[in-house]
Specification:
With 240 residues, the chain is α/β, with parallel strands linked by helices. Helices cover 36% and strands 29% of the residues. It has five helices and eight strands; from the N terminus they run H-E-H-E-E-E-H-E-H-E-E-E-H. Strands 1, 2, 3, 4, 5, 6, 7 and 8 form an eight-stranded mixed sheet that branches. The radius of gyration is 33 Å and the shape is elongated. Mean pLDDT is 81; it is low at 10-19 and 64-71.
C-alpha cells in the first residue's frame, strides 16, 4: 500500500469514528430530551361544575295560569336578591364541614364548583316554587311595582332571604347530609312604608348518598327544593 493510500484510509477511519461519536451524542441528547418531556407535570384537572339540575323540562299548558285566576292566583310577590352571609364572598366552591373534627371550619372541595354562587341557585329554586301560584317580581324592579300599583293592584309582598348555611356536613367519614338554613323575612309594602308580616328560619337536612362532592351536591339540591316548598307554603298562609 502506498503512503498516499494509507493516509486516505486513516482519514476515512477518523471521519467514520467522528461521525459515530457525533451520532451517539445526538441520540443521547434526544433521549434525554424525551425523558425530560415525559417527566413534565400533566396539566391540572379542571374542576367539575354542578348546579341543581335542569329543573322543569316540560312547559306548563298555556292556559294553566289563567285557569288559576282570579280566585286561586295569588297576589304578586317581589323576591329580593338572596344574601349569603354564611357563604364566603365570591365563592362558588362546594363546601363541607367535619362535625367530628373542627366543625367550625368550612372546607372547599378542590375539584368541585357550583356553576353560580349558591345564593343565586337557591333564589332560582325559590322563584320556580313560588311562581306556581303567583306572579314573581324582582324587588328592585321599580317599573314593575309601579305598573302593578297603577293598574289598581295592591303593592306586592316582598320576600327577603339570608342563606346562613349551605354545606355538606359529615357526622363521620362515611355519613353526611346536605344542610340548608335560610332566614326568610316577609313584608307588606304600604304607601307609608313596610309592614312586617313574619320571619322564619327554615332548616332542612338531606342525607348524602355518597361521601363525596357528588353526593353532597345532590343532597344540597334536594334540601334546597324542600326549603323552597316549605317557604312557599308559609308565604301562602298570609292569604294574599
Amino acid at each position: 500500500m502506498s503512503m498516499k493510500n494509507a493516509i486516505k484510509n486513516r482519514a476515512a477511519c477518523a471521519y467514520s469514528s467522528s461521525a459515530r461519536a457525533l451520532f451517539g451524542l445526538k441520540l443521547g441528547a434526544a433521549t434525554l430530551l424525551l425523558a425530560g418531556c415525559s417527566a413534565l407535570p400533566s396539566p391540572p384537572a379542571r374542576p367539575v361544575l354542578y348546579d341543581f339540575g335542569p329543573g322543569a323540562t316540560v312547559a306548563a299548558p298555556a292556559d294553566a295560569r289563567s285557569a288559576l285566576a282570579p280566585q286561586a292566583m295569588r297576589a304578586p310577590l317581589a323576591l329580593a336578591e338572596i344574601e349569603a352571609p354564611g357563604v364566603p364572598d365570591g365563592s362558588n366552591a362546594v363546601l363541607y364541614r367535619l362535625a367530628y373534627s373542627g366543625a367550625q371550619q368550612l372546607r372547599p372541595y378542590s375539584q368541585a364548583r357550583w356553576s353560580q354562587p349558591p345564593a343565586q341557585l337557591v333564589q332560582q329554586r325559590l322563584r320556580e316554587e313560588l311562581g306556581h301560584t303567583r306572579p314573581i317580581l324582582q324587588s328592585d324592579d321599580g317599573a314593575a311595582l309601579s305598573r302593578n300599583s297603577a293598574q289598581g293592584g295592591k303593592l306586592p309582598l316582598v320576600l327577603r332571604g339570608e342563606l346562613e348555611e349551605f354545606s355538606q356536613i359529615f357526622t363521620s367519614p362515611t355519613q353526611s347530609t346536605g344542610t340548608v338554613r335560610l332566614r326568610a323575612t316577609l313584608v307588606d309594602l304600604t304607601p307609608t312604608g313596610e309592614s312586617l308580616l313574619g320571619q322564619r328560619v327554615f332548616i332542612v337536612q338531606q342525607p348524602a348518598r355518597t361521601a363525596d362532592a357528588e353526593g353532597g351536591v345532590a343532597a344540597l339540591a334536594e334540601a334546597s327544593t324542600q326549603v323552597a316548598s316549605e317557604l312557599a307554603a308559609w308565604v301562602d298562609q298570609t292569604g294574599r
